[in-house]
Write a structure and sequence with these properties.
The complex is a heterodimer of chains A (139) and B (271). The model of chain A has no long low-confidence stretch (mean pLDDT 91). Chain A has one domain: Response regulator (Rossmann fold, 3-Layer(aba) Sandwich), CATH 3.40.50. Chain A is α/β, with parallel strands linked by helices. Chain A is 40% helix and 19% strand. Chain B has two domains: 186 residues, Rossmann fold (3-Layer(aba) Sandwich); 57 residues, Histidine-containing Protein, Chain: A, CATH 3.30.1340. Helices cover 53% and strands 17% of the residues of chain B. A five-stranded parallel sheet of chain B has the order 2-3-1-4-5, with helices on both faces. In chain B, strands 6-7-8 form a three-stranded mixed sheet. In chain B, β6 and β7 form a beta hairpin. The termini of chain B are far apart. The model of chain B has no long low-confidence stretch (mean pLDDT 92). Classes of the chains: A alpha/beta (139), B alpha/beta (271). At the A-B interface, α4 and β5 of A face α9 of B.
Amino acid sequence: MARSLEVLLLDDEPIVGRRLKPALDKIGCQVEVFENPKEAVARIDQKEFDIVVTDIRMEEMDGIAVLEHVQKKWPRTKVILITGYAKMDLAREAMEKGVFDFIAKPFRPDDLRRIIASAAEALGMPIDAASPNDETVAE
Amino acid sequence: MSIIIISSDVREIEEMIAGKVAEEKGYGRLDRRIINDVAARHQVEPGRLIEALETTPSLFRKLSSRQWRYYLSCIEADVLERLLADNLVCWGLAAHLYVTDISHAMKIRVLAGKSSGLAKIAEERGISLQRAETYRDDEMARRKKWSLAAFNQDETDLSRYDLVISLDQIDSVEAVRTITGASEYRKFQVMTYSMKCLTDLALAAKVHAVLLKSMADVKVQARDGSVVVSTRASTRQKRKKTETIKALAGQVDGVGYVEVHVKKNFLKETA
C-alpha cells in the first residue's frame, strides 16, 4: 500500500490550519499544523515532508525564508506559498526561488487540494483530490 | 507555460520578431487575425476595430470617444479571454497596455534602432532613410499619445517592460533567441495566483465591454466572480443606472455578484 503524503502546514493565523487540516485529511494527507515558523523549521530539520504549505507574511520568519530553508535541507520537498498580500513582484520572486505554486487568500480548500494533487503528481505519488467540501479560507 | 507579449516602435519589426518567437517556441499566435472574429462577436465592423487600435477619436473620422472606448473594450475582452489558453505569443492588439500585473505574461519591447528599423521602414514604404527616420519619430509620438489616451499607459516608457531589446545592438536572430531563452525563466511560468489574476482581469474586461455598449464612464474590477462597477450619475439617475448595470453585468458568464458604486455627476447635477 502506498504511503500517505506528508504535509507540513504553517500559518500564524490559527483559523487557516483549523480549516485546511480537515480538508487535506480528507484526501489522505498526513498533516502537521504549525503557527510558529521557528517551531515549523525545527520540525522540518527533523523530518522530510513531501509538501510544505506556508504563509508568506509572518512575524518571526517569512515564508520565503522558510522556502529557502526547506530547499537547502530537503531539495525534493515541494513548497506551496499562500498569502493575503499577493503582488506580481512577490509571485515572481517566489517562482524564481523555486516555489512549486503560489496562491492568494482567500481561496477554497478545493483550490489547495488541486495544487497538493499536482505537487503529489510531480513527486510521483498521485492522489485523488476530489472532495465535496468547499468552504473559503479567510483572508 | 507562459504568455509572451511583444511590441515595437516599428510594426513590421514587431510582426517579424513575434512571428519568429512563436515559431521557435511552438506557441500559438494571437494577433490581428482575430479582428474579424471579435467584430462578428460584438456585431461591429472589423475596420472600426482596426481604426480604434490605430487612431484616437476624431470628428473628422466620425469616431466618437464613446465608440472608440467601446471598440477597444471589445478587443481587450476577447484578447484576455484568449490569453487564458496560455502558451501564446501576442502582438498588434495593444495587450502590452492592458495585460497588467500578470506574472506569467512577459512583456517585450523591441526597439527597431537606426540601422535595421529605418532600413526596414524605408524598404517597406519605398522612401529614403531620412524620411524613414522622420516617419518613425512621428509614429512614436503618435503611439505615445494613443496609448495614454486609450489605456492611460505610455507605451514608450521602457520601465513598463520585462525585457527591452535594441536591434541596433542585437541582431534579430539573437533577439529571438534571447526572448525564447528568457521566457523559460521560472518567474514567467504560470502559477495558480497568476492564472487567477488573469481570470479576474478577463472577467472585468468582459463586463466592461458589455457596459460600454450602452453607457460611458464605467470602471470595472472583478474578483472570484464578484464584480465592482464604479460610475457617475446624477442623484436622479443613480437608481436607474445602478439597476441597469446590475442587470447587464449579471448576465455575463462567470459573474456571481455585482456591486455598483455611483459617484455624483456634478456636471449633470447642476445642469
